[in-house]
């Protein structure tokens, strides 16, 4: 087995528009997320996603060419070579200033993320209603509008990033027998003019 892995970085700042456009593709984004933990082959990712491997190969190649995933090891198997890929970072940050006003890449990226989140949340809620766990952790959905200062926003951003970094740092040492897969979606943005502060909580 040949290995070149040094492990993913904590954060990668996306500074290239072509990289951002790849992230705007829902399928490529799903592949990138699937490769965000342990290194996987395209076959393993395809099985986890319920896709045909032949559909994913060119997408993995595009992600590798753009520097978003990397080949970390190879293994001979039955006359072929298995290739294991891993995302280059555990988290990717894309700044809106990267996009020109006339470029719809940002809208496409947001639409893909929101569509996936909607599908996953709907499926999670249906599964939870069918098999509730009253003594376990409950799904939480919070819709919030608030009047905040710049200092409050800076503090919130810092605490959220610290929490995300802490969560990611514990992934490598967590026991798979004592953990469960959870997903989250967070967006915090200026409210449209005229909308008042309120809070709607569903759990």
TrEMBL record:
One biological process term in Gene Ontology: regulation of DNA-templated transcription
SUPFAM superfamilies: Winged helix' DNA-binding domain (SSF46785)
Bilayer-spanning residue ranges: none
Domain of life per record: Bacteria
Pfam families: HTH_20 (PF12840)
InterPro entries to which the protein is assigned, alphabetical: ArsR-like_HTH, WH-like_DNA-bd_sf, WH_DNA-bd_sf
Protein name: Helix-turn-helix domain-containing protein
Organism expressing this protein natively: Marinihelvus fidelis
Top-level taxonomy: Bacteria, Pseudomonadati, Pseudomonadota, Gammaproteobacteria, Chromatiales
């Amino acid at each position: 087995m040949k290995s070149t892995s040094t492990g993913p970085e904590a954060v990668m700042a996306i500074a290239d528009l072509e990289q951002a456009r790849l992230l705007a593709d829902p399928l490529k984004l799903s592949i990138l997320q699937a490769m965000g933990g342990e290194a996987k082959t395209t076959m393993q990712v395809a099985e986890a996603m319920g896709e045909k491997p032949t559909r994913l190969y060119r997408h993995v190649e595009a992600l590798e060419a753009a520097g978003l995933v990397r080949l970390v090891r190879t293994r001979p198997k039955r006359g072929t070579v298995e290739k294991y890929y891993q995302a280059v970072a555990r988290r990717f940050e894309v700044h809106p200033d990267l996009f020109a006003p006339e470029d719809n890449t940002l809208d496409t990226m947001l639409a893909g993320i929101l569509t996936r989140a909607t599908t996953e949340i709907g499926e999670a809620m249906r599964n939870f209603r069918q098999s509730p766990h009253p003594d376990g952790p409950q799904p939480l959905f919070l819709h919030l509008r608030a009047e905040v200062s710049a200092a409050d926003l800076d503090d919130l951003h810092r605490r959220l990033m610290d929490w995300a970094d802490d969560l990611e740092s514990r992934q490598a040492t967590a026991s798979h027998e004592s953990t469960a897969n959870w997903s989250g979606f967070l967006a915090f943005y200026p409210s449209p003019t005229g909308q008042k502060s309120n809070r709607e909580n569903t759990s």
